[in-house]
Structures are given as structure tokens and as C-alpha cells.
TrEMBL record:
Cellular location(s): Cell membrane
Annotated keywords: Cell membrane, Membrane, Transmembrane, Transmembrane helix, Transport
A Pfam family that the UniProt record links to this protein: TauE
Family as reported in the entry's similarity comment: Belongs to the 4-toluene sulfonate uptake permease (TSUP) (TC 2.A.102) family.
Domain of life according to the entry: Bacteria
Ranges annotated as spanning the membrane: 74-96, 102-122, 143-169, 189-216, 236-254
Membrane topology value: Multi-pass membrane protein
Single GO cellular component term: plasma membrane
Organism per entry: Streptomyces platensis
Keyword Kinase recorded: no
Keyword Transmembrane helix attached: yes
Name the record gives this protein: Probable membrane transporter protein
Main location (coarse class): membrane
Length: 255
């Protein structure tokens, strides 16, 4: 890797770490860069996954205040993400990439609709519960756990816009502030990337230069993303999620 290529990968890592912490979809920055510099798709994917783990951890640390009071919920969600992420990593080596090419843009589009409609949907759900005299499950119930597991399978497989899907699911089924949901999203992304990376260590080949550069860049980006994201009002954060999600759909359809 030349000096210019190394700088480009490092810069992509910073961008990916930043956008992952705020929204998700950082993979759509780093993965194409690695492909452009000649890495085979599977090698680029697994190297990118491992390199982004420190960035996910950095973003989670940056959002630690918003995690206060969510320990029990976080442990349940993390266990589900661990299982799903491992399943997705196994599928990456077992299935052709075409298996996800059609469904992924659809998943992201549905998630964006949920993100946009989340305030209205949440209000309707609360009103229905009040009429029926029922209370919300503090952790979203089995439906949310199943949704998070499926999203984690996708995250272990590729992960572009995984964070958008997480936020959409939790936003509809949890009565929480968007920033606190974003904090959960960052931890779940770290779990999925981490378990997938550990699995890949035993069965796949890495480009260790790319891993190191992305890891350094994404760690810096994670802190930058936390500083920016935590200052965003809910409406602005939701708008950023929608814009990034739309860009992800366009990039996936044109690749």
C-alpha cells in the first residue's frame, strides 16, 4: 500500500467512525475504498469489520452518559446481538453476496420509513395502551428482540446502515429519547462487529495494514461522532439518519 493509499484508508476510517457513531453506515465509506485499492471483496469486508471494532467501542464510550440506567436492557440486547452477529459472519462465508443484494436496500428503506414515522407511531401506540389500560414492556418485548437479532445477522454479514435499522426498531418499540437509543445502537454495533471479527480471525484472511489504519481512524472518528451526535436535537439527528440511509440505498443499488 502506497503512502497516498494509506492516507486515504486512514481518512476513510475517520469518516466511518464518525458516521457510525452518529447514525451508522460507515462501512459504505471504508469498504469501497478498500475495493478500489485492489482488495478482494471478502478480504475487504472482514478487514473492514475488524478495523471498525475500535471505532464502535470509541463511540460507545463517547455516549456513556446516555447509557445510564439501561444496564439490564443493554445486557439482553447485547446477548441477542452476539448471537445474530455470529450468524451473519457465518453466512458471509457460506452464501454468495448476491443473496443480500436485493433485500438490503428494501430493509433500509423500511427502516427509514419507521425512523420518519417514529414519533407519530410511538404516540399512537401510547394512546392505544392508555385506552386498553396496558403498559409498555420496558425492553420492547419479544418482537424487538427478534428484530434486533435479524438486524444483527445482517450486521455480521455486511453491516451497511445496520445502525439505521437498530434505531428504527427501538424507536418504535421503546419509549426512550433518541439519543439514548443511539447510545444503545453504538454498543450493539460494537458487539456485532466484535463477534464477527473474532470469528473471521480463525477462518478468513486479513489485510493487516488496512485493519490498523481503519482502527486508528475509526477510533478518532468515534470520539468526534460522539461529540457531534450528542449535541444534535432529535429532529436534526433523525434528519441525518434519513439522509445517510438514502445515500446508502443509492450506493447499494448502483454498485
Amino acid at each position: 500500500m502506497s503512502i497516498g493509499e494509506a492516507v486515504a484508508v486512514f481518512a476513510a476510517g475517520i469518516g466511518a467512525g464518525t458516521i457510525n457513531t452518529i447514525v451508522g453506515s460507515g462501512t459504505l465509506i471504508t469498504f469501497p475504498v478498500l475495493l478500489a485499492f485492489g482488495l478482494p471483496p471478502v478480504t475487504a469486508n472482514v478487514s473492514n469489520t475488524l478495523g471498525l471494532v475500535p471505532g464502535s467501542l470509541s463511540g460507545a464510550v463517547g455516549y456513556r452518559r446516555e447509557l445510564a440506567g439501561q444496564r439490564r436492557r443493554l445486557l439482553r440486547f447485547a446477548a441477542v446481538a452476539l448471537i445474530g452477529g455470529l450468524g451473519g459472519a457465518i453466512l458471509l462465508l457460506a452464501l454468495p453476496s448476491e443473496a443480500f443484494d436485493t433485500i438490503v436496500p428494501v430493509l433500509i428503506a423500511v427502516a427509514l420509513v419507521l425512523v420518519i414515522a417514529q414519533p407519530r407511531l410511538a404516540a399512537r401506540i401510547r394512546a392505544r395502551r392508555e385506552r386498553n389500560g396496558t403498559t409498555a414492556h420496558p425492553d420492547g418485548g419479544p418482537v424487538l428482540l427478534l428484530g434486533l437479532m435479524l438486524a444483527s445477522v445482517y450486521g455480521g454479514y455486511f453491516g451497511a446502515a445496520q445502525g439505521v435499522i437498530y434505531v428504527a426498531l427501538m424507536g418504535v418499540l421503546l419509549n426512550e429519547d433518541l439519543q439514548r437509543l443511539n447510545a444503545l445502537k453504538n454498543v450493539l454495533a460494537a458487539v456485532v462487529n466484535g463477534v464477527a471479527a473474532v470469528f473471521f480471525l480463525f477462518v478468513a484472511e486479513f489485510d493487516w495494514t488496512a485493519v490498523a489504519l481503519i482502527a486508528l481512524g475509526s477510533t478518532l472518528g468515534g470520539q468526534l461522532g460522539a461529540k457531534v451526535g450528542r449535541r444534535m436535537p432529535p429532529t436534526a439527528l433523525r434528519a441525518v439518519i434519513v439522509v445517510v440511509g438514502l445515500l446508502a440505498i443509492v450506493q447499494l443499488l448502483l454498485k
